[in-house]
Structure formats: C-alpha cells, structure tokens
Automatic annotation (TrEMBL):
SUPFAM superfamilies: alpha/beta-Hydrolases. The keyword Ion transport does not apply. It comes from Diaphorobacter ruginosibacter. The lineage of its organism: Bacteria, Pseudomonadati, Pseudomonadota, Betaproteobacteria, Burkholderiales. This is Tannase/feruloyl esterase family alpha/beta hydrolase. The keyword Translocase does not apply. InterPro entries: AB_hydrolase_fold (IPR029058), Tannase/feruloyl_esterase (IPR011118). Belongs to the tannase family. GO terms for molecular function: carboxylic ester hydrolase activity; metal ion binding. Pfam families: Tannase. Keywords: Calcium, Disulfide bond, Hydrolase, Metal-binding, Serine esterase, Signal.
Length: 534
C-alpha cells in the first residue's frame, strides 16, 4: 500500500512535470554533487545578478537585493512564475550553506507568506535564512484569501496544484535555480510547514518519498476530508438556537479545566501539560449544566451550549472511506485564551466570523456541493460521497506506511501544540501511532519523532513554550551527527527575550515540574522540569 503514490498518477493527469521527473531520476532530496566551495561565497548581490531576468527551472525570474533591517539580514529575493499561476519566492542568503529549506503554506494558500512575522511560526523562514539556507515558499498555484477555496470549483488544474503538485513543481525549479547560480544542487533539502503546510509535508513524504532528506510536520491538516467534516459539525452546533458561547462562558469552562488538571504536571501555572491525566471524568463538564438545560447566565451552560462541547470532544466519522474521520479535541484549560476557541469556534457569540465556519463553508461550496451559493449549514457533509472521495484523493495524506521515505534515508519530526483549537493534537497522535504500527517500532525509532508542546495554540501563541528550532535538530539528525531527544522550547516576548523555558519532550512524555515549590523564578526555567511518562 505504501508504494501506490510514489509517482505522478491519475490524480495528476494533465501535468507533464518534466522538471520534477528529472529530479526524481537524479535521486532528489538534495543528493546531488557538492557545489564548488567557492560558489558558496557568492554574495546576495551576485546571486541576484545571476538570476534577475533569467528563465531557470522552467520559471521566469525577477531578483532584487533586500537590505538588512531589524532582525532580517541582507538577502537576494528571487520571485518566480511557473506557467501562468504558480508563483514562488526564494530567499538567497549572503553566504549559502549549501542546503534548501522549503517553507509550506497555510489554509487554502493563495499567497506567498512573508519572510517573518509576529509569532514563532511566522518567524521560521527567517530562522532558516539566518542559518544560511536558501529558502523557498509558494502560493500553491492560485491567488486568493487564506480561507477561500473558490479556485477549486472550476479549475481542476489549480485544485491538483494545491492538493499535491505545487511543492514538487517548485522544488524542481528551486533545485535547478540553485544549480544554475551556485554550480550544484543542494547537499540537503528539507521541508517544514504547519497546518496546511504540515499537510503538504505529509503529501510529499507519502507520494514523493525521494524529494526531501527530512520533513518537519507541524500541526498537520493531513486528513482534509475528516477535518473539514468535523469543522462542519462543530459550526452547526455552535450556530444552533441557544448555543452561542460568550467570553464569560469560555472562561467558565477554562477555569473548570484548570482547576481539575493544571496541577497534574507538578505545578499550577496555567499550563495543562499532562493531558493523559486530564480525563473527561476528572473535568466533569456535565456539572456545569444549567438547571433544566436553559441558559441561566454566565455560571452555567445550557443544553445547546453543552452540545457544542459534545461535538468538540467526540470523534466525527463520515461515510465514504475509512479515513473520513477526525479525532476529538481535548479540553485543555486554554479555552479562554484570546487566540484559542473564540477565533476558531465561538466568535465570542458570533460563530459566523470564526475560522472553522469559514473553512467548512468554502470547502462545502467549492469541493462538495460545487455551488457557490450553497448553504453549508444545511448541507449534509457526506451526502455526496463521490465528491468527498474526490476531495480526499486530491488533498488527504493519510497513508501510514512511510517505509519508502524511511528506506531512502528520510527523517521525520512531527510537532503539535497541546492547546491547538484548529487541528487537534489527537489527530497527529493518531497518525503517529498508525504510522509506527505500519513501519514497525525499529523503523519509527530510527527515523521519526513526535513532540507535543503543552499550552500552545495552532502553530504558535498560547501560554506555553512555542519557539523551538526543529530545523537545527533535523539537520543534525539527517547529517548523521545525533538523533533528537528532549529539545529546548522557549516562549519569547515581543522583543525576543525569553519569558519561560520548557523541555520539549518526546511523545508520550510530558514536562513535569521538579523545582522548588512556590519559586516563580524556578518555574520559568526549563531545568526545573523533567520529561516524564504519563
């Protein structure tokens, strides 16, 4: 089963990816010959001179030097177009380290993410650039808003590009561009992405196992069919009569969870770091039900509001395929964080503004009902099984047998925020467990790792330590120096100063506090915690 998606198949009919085919034939994954050592000394300005106005790797290029500013070093920005609608951007450092870093997209793509942003996730491309990597990102083959899937309604080529082809197509071009400028393909090629970017990494690993030497998958939206279906179920529950959840109601739930579970990791600090012990029985959410089930105010939940959490904390299963399912979200004590449940599910009483509603709405309109005027809240998600199967064939990355990737020397690091309100951590754990069963413990131990970051929201933010350099860990591992074990994660303030540190533990371990009781300074230090089995 694991070999069925290695080559371009019927799902990608209509594409003649000659460049990518050549990349596969060469072994890909950055395993080309070493560049002339002198080539790595090319400055950003010289690299731009080599690229500007040229056609390389089937792409029309425009290049310009970006001056250093703030935390961003000088670099050469290379903008490329393949065909008519696949845009990408490469950033070439002042001194190239001979390696390529592909930073994945997010949502339904549609634009190229900037080199840096305000949170830990958006700063990852900058981390790679500062380490000397040539970095690349694309728009997925279309131009739109992050949550807009209208490109898929009448443009099957754009749908296939988003589903699985934009990454290999851009990778092929990036390899050829670097070879043209520096004299050889990269010695190592890595992919890193979160959310849809994580899905892109898993698609690459499963369908094109020779493309990358290593892949970092953060909070992956890999089971598109199941995830969007659960979004739909949650949105319907959140918009049912009497179900609107205010900020006060979320605060009530979050306090209840923290009261029950915060101390289970050895310290009461607002971070529920031992989720295995934070069971529904311990939380006892039914105790919050208002008398008679009516909404009696801020200190209880009506039956309709309880139904929202019932949808949230139970698995969703749909007809059409064994993988058309999505695991339950945990209650984690972060529900009242400004970037947690409110923007994703409740909208503080206005669910139509939320991310889950936007994504399920555009998915149903453009992939399933295939009608831009369809009422997604009135649509039965698995009523058109053929359309659901077609969408899964385009976008899903649920194959657990990654033996070809591992046998080719690939290394995989998975990461997920423990308080993620967008894509729940249990979904990633479920895939990781199924993958280990498929490839065997020996293969999984040699080539894969999973980390859960307590208290971290979707891709970044939250009360937990959301900053960790997984790329450095992957490169050390792929280069044969050392396999990752416990890593160091940090939470930074707006100026880049460390607010707290935590060990990032290999799953299923969690960080348990062993420092002095009542010592606020010790509680902020990673050295005060020990990775512990639940």
């Amino acid at each position: 089963m694991g070999t069925r998606n290695f080559n371009l198949d019927s799902r990608t009919a209509g594409y003649t990816l000659a460049a990518y085919g050549a990349l596969l034939m060469s072994g890909c994954g950055g395993r080309g010959g070493p560049a002339d050592p002198q080539a790595h000394t090319l400055t950003a300005a010289r690299a731009c001179e080599e690229a500007d106005g040229k056609v390389m790797g089937d792409a029309r290029l425009k290049a310009s030097v970006v001056a250093a500013g703030g935390d961003v070093p000088v670099y050469c920005k290379v903008q490329g177009v393949i065909g008519t609608s696949l845009h990408f951007e490469m950033r070439l450092p002042e001194r190239w380290n001979g390696k390529l870093h592909f930073w994945g997209g997010g949502g339904y793509d549609g634009f190229i993410q900037s080199i840096s942003g305000p949170d830990a996730n958006s700063r990852i491309p900058l981390v790679a650039l500062k380490a000397g990597y040539a970095t690349v990102s694309s728009d997925g083959g279309h131009q739109s808003e992050l949550w807009n899937a209208s490109f898929a309604l009448a443009n099957p080529e754009a749908a296939r590009m988003f589903g699985s082809l934009s990454v290999p197509t851009v990778t092929a071009s990036a390899q050829k561009i670097l070879a043209s400028i520096y004299g050889a393909t990269p010695g190592k090629s890595y992919f890193e992405g979160c959310s849809n970017g994580g899905r892109e990494g898993m698609v690459s690993m499963q369908r094109y196992p020779k493309m990358f030497d290593g892949i970092i998958v953060r909070a992956p939206a890999y089971n598109w069919a199941g995830l969007m279906g659960h979004f739909s179920r949650n949105a319907k529950a959140a918009m049912a009569p009497g179900a609107r959840l205010s900020a006060d109601k979320l605060a009530l739930v979050a306090r209840t969870v923290r009261h029950a579970c915060d101390a289970l990791d050895g310290i009461t600090d607002g971070v529920v770091a031992n989720p295995a012990a934070c069971t529904p029985l311990r939380i006892n959410l039914p105790a919050l039900r208002c008398d008679g089930g009516a909404d009696l105010g801020r200190d209880c939940l009506s039956d309709a509001q309880m139904a929202v959490f019932q949808s949230w904390t139970t698995e969703a299963v749909f007809q059409g395929g064994s993988t058309f399912r999505n695991t339950a979200w945990n209650l984690n004590g972060n529900e009242d964080d400004p970037l947690n449940m409110a923007p994703w599910l409740t909208g503080n009483g206005n669910p139509v503004t939320t991310e889950q509603y936007r994504y399920e709405d555009t998915t149903i309109k453009n992939y399933l009902a295939r009608d831009p005027h369809a009422d997604s809240l009135g649509y039965s998600y698995d009523s058109n099984i053929g359309a659901l199967v077609d969408m899964a064939a385009l976008n899903d990355a649920t194959e657990p047998d990654i033996s070809p990737f591992i046998k080719n020397g690939g290394k995989l690091i998975m990461w997920h925020g423990g308080a993620d309100p967008g894509i729940n951590m249990n979904s990633t754990i479920d895939y990781y467990d199924r993958m280990r069963k498929a490839v065997g413990d020996a293969g999984a131990n040699a080539a894969t790792r999973l980390y859960i970051a307590p208290g971290v929201n979707h891709c970044a933010t939250g009360v937990g330590a959301d900053t960790v350099d997984l790329l450095a860990a992957l490169d050390q591992w792929s280069s044969g120096n050392s396999a990752p074990a416990t890593l160091n994660a940090r939470k930074l303030d707006a100026g880049g100063a460390e607010v707290l540190g935590r060990p990032l533990c290999e799953y299923p371990q969690y960080p348990r506090y062993v420092g002095a009781a009542g010592d606020a300074a010790a509680a902020r230090l990673a050295s005060s915690y020990v990775c512990t089995a639940p």
